[in-house]
Amino acid sequence: MNQAALEAVPERIEKVRERLRTEDCDALLLTIGPDLEYLSGYSALPLERLTMLVLPTVGDPVLVVPELEAPGFTSGEGLIEARPWTETEDPLRIIDDLLRGASSAAISDEAWAMFVLGIQERRPGLALRRASSIVAPLRRVKDPAEQEALVEVGGAADQVMEAIQTGQIPVVGRTEAVLAEKVRGALVDAGHDTVEFAIVASGPNAASPHHQPADRVVEKGEILLFDIGGRRRGYNSDTTRCVVVGRPDPEVVDAYAVLDAAHRAGIAAARVGNTCQDVDRAARSVITAAGFGDRFIHRTGHGIGLNVHEEPYIIEGNQLPLEPGFAFSVEPGIYVGGMWGMRLEDIVIVGDDQPTLCNRSSRELVSL
Description:
This protein is of the alpha+beta class.
């Protein structure tokens, strides 16, 4: 996580306390995951040894952490107390002691069952709810430091897309799997700390939105879809572009024009005063009007930040009003099974007026 985001941790903790009080909840229990990172700056390893932040409405927050992992946690001027536990201690007993007097708690949505059930066995009267009800409304609104991080990592992903679009990463005669490895290396070279995914789908494989790169060799005359992303300073990139090897089929060209119009409509709808549903409808209506409605088989977008996929979700039925600081993808797609598929994706950040685009690479259907 970047330094500016770390400096925001004290304010975030106080906002969480306010929400806990408003929701009449006595404590927040966070295990490994982005919520823990958001409130502590600590990215814990996914171990069977329990790591859990106990944040009560009254009293100091405490991170219960395995002793062998404790050196990796720095609380920043004592903001969060570390409570290391040894291999012969029961960490759930420590959690139980810290929850003394609590009648309700919000626990990580992703908490392992053995920890949730262990807490319930020790405190059968403790009412548990999902931590997302407390933390997600805060994480949805990205502060200036988070927005800066998203723009920066989006620019790093753009460098890779531009290398693909200009032929610096040759595609003809290579397999999807080989190309995916080249893209992964390019993402790291462009400044990503880690690579989260590199979807490379050629020809009929592009009709599968989450296709896993395989040994299929890229051939001339077909569409090639790249959906790539990774992490930099804690925040994620995610962008999708399509290229065509040689001369594209006229049907593909026509469909891509529809896709591009839908993408533009979705971005234009990413404004305060609209809802998440409105953005989905804006993009989907263009594709439906062109006769491809049944070929657009997924939501228009998802929130992004410490997670690649997080709230808010841009989908029919989500009537959450957009707020300044909401960051999410706009990624309409058209998929024709057995033939071809296409998707166009950018990350946008809602502003007081115009949305900020985190991706600037060409949105044209480039021919290589």
